[in-house]
Every structure is written in structure tokens, then in C-alpha cells.
Write a structure and sequence with these properties.
- Pfam families: ATP_bind_3, TilS.
- This is tRNA(Ile)-lysidine synthase.
- Belongs to the tRNA(Ile)-lysidine synthase family.
- Keywords: ATP-binding, Cytoplasm, Ligase, Nucleotide-binding, tRNA processing.
- By secondary structure, the protein is of the alpha/beta class.
- The protein has two domains: about 240 residues, 3-Layer(aba) Sandwich (Rossmann fold), CATH 3.40.50.620; about 80 residues, Uridine Diphospho-n-acetylenolpyruvylglucosamine Reductase, domain 3.
- Strands 3-2-1-4-6-5 form a six-stranded mixed β-sheet, with helices on both faces. A four-stranded antiparallel β-sheet has the order 7-10-9-8.
- Helix 6 crosses helix 10 and helix 12 crosses helix 13.
Amino acid sequence: MGPHPAVAAIRLAVRRVLHDILNDDHTPSGLGRQASGERTHRTAERSPSPLVLVACSGGADSMALASALAFEAPRLGVRAGGVTVDHGLQPGSGLRADEVALRLQELGLDPVECVAVTVGRDGGPEAAARDARYAALDAVAERHGATAILLGHTRDDQAETVLLGLARGSGIRSLSGMAAVSGTGGRYRRPFLALDRQTARKACMAQSLPVWDDPHNTDPAYTRSRLRHEGLPALEKALGKGVVEALARTAQLSRDDADALDAWASQAEASVRDATGLLECAKLYALPPAVRRRILRRAAIEAGAPAGSLFARHIEEVDRLITGWRGQGAINLPGKVVAQRQGGRLVIRQG
């Protein structure tokens, strides 16, 4: 008898991602180059197999992911490790993080690290915790030379992310949700974006894996928690089942469109700059708004505006220097960046 259907589903998702990693030309093993038909007859010793880490909080999603990685990695010649992050936001968090690290070791993962972080206040508690967590994961990956880190975000998480983006009114990129591959060099991989949260929980139950339910996930003080337990159920009651699947599909379609517009903006940017590199307002005006605003956003970030603090309303104000010019003054942007129109040119720089 084969594994439980939920266990089979999570293992298949992880197996596909590991195959992608092995087929990547940047993996240390060089297996991708061989897969593409390039054979080598050199007898020199091969480089070590790639190391893939799983980020695990101890919740059902990440525990299911850790178990699937521990099962699949040895069968594909991949080294598998794990990391858990202690945010220090709840009493006993350090002890729980140690327990999660022990569970990862019991699954056979090696190396396993437990990292404590200090969560700041910038951007609110959820954003600050996320920033601290990713910084810690990046540091662990660099320290061990890991090729990739697997994250346990599910289709339900994707649907929530799309709704949060919609509420912010931040445009199509915000509606595209989380990418299956992200981070520097494609470091972060999300195998479960096509699987629902219940599949991961069923997989843990079928394997008798202990899980920890973070009380923050049900705390109404957190926006995502309210959306999960109040917002999405209300939408499904009003619109019927299938809302989560539809939102996840919207994310993928939006990402495809956003990627195409980003590529268009990259190609168009050189054509709207003068010999000194300044943006020419007349040429910007001739571009479609979606392309023009992408160029403006990129210019603001290059000038020093933090991407996470640069919202659609900021770019709209700068855009009015192009489309609604009436001699208005400079626009102040995050990061002490100033945008102003001078002699038919748009100047964006540190103020």
C-alpha cells in the first residue's frame, strides 16, 4: 500500500522542486548542465551535492514540508538541512524553537540550526517579524553554502496575500502574491503554492508528526489572522466555495502580466533618458501609464527610496509631474528622496 494521498501530494511537490534545483545550472553539482546534454568525461572529483534547507516553524505546513524533504532528498542525491527561527515574541519561544530543531534532527536533517532574532518595529509587527526572519534565513544559507531554502506557504497563504495586496491598492504586482521562486539567485522555493493548508495538516496526521499551532495565527490583533478567520470565510459564504482557488489563479495570471510589463519597462527606460541620464518628461508621457510608472518607481528606488516604503500613491504623485504639470513643487518620497521637474527633465535624487 502506498503512502496516504496527502503525504504523496506533498512529496511530489517537493520532488518537483528538487528536480528544478538539480537542473539549475547554478547548482554546485553541475547536474543541470549534464541534463541539458552536455556530458563530461573528466575524471576529476565532483563537487558536493547541493544543500537544501527547510525553514520550519513547527506548524503543520512547515513540518509537512520538512518531512517530505527528508524523504525525497536522499533519493535524489541532495543534502537536506533545516532552520527554525525564534522571534522571541512569546513566552517560552526559545524552548519551542529548540523542540522544533530536535524534531528536524529526528527526521534526519543535517545541518539543523535554531536562530534567535530581534524583531524591530518598522512597518508593523508582521512586516518586522518577516524582515528579521528572512535576514536570519539568508545568513544561515550563506554560512552553510545552501543552494535553496524551502518555505511552506500554501495556496491558502497565497489567497490571503492577494487579498492583502488588493486592500492596499498597490497595483498588479501586489496582486501577484508570492512567487514560487524568489530571493537572490532564486534562493527561496515554495513547493506548496498549489496545495491547500488542509493537505499539509492531513499529511502530518498521517505520519504522526507533532505540530505547533502559533497563537498569533488566531490573534485578531494581526491583519492576516482576521483575514484568515473572518474575511475569507465571509467571502466564501457570499460567493460560494472556490474563492481560495480563484485568488491563487489570479495571483499567477497577475504575475505573468506584471513580469511582461516589467520587461517592457526595462527595455523602454534607456530610450527616455537623455545623454546625461536624466529622464525626459515628453518621452515618458508618450509611454503607457503602466510602463511609465514602473520606470518612475525604479528610478526612485535607485535614488535611495526603500522599496518596501514606496507605495502606489507616491508613484502617482511623481507621475503627475509628467501628466499633470502645472508648475508644482518637488515631491517628497520615502528615504529622503525628492522628485522634481526641471527644464523638461525629471530629477529624482536624495534631497
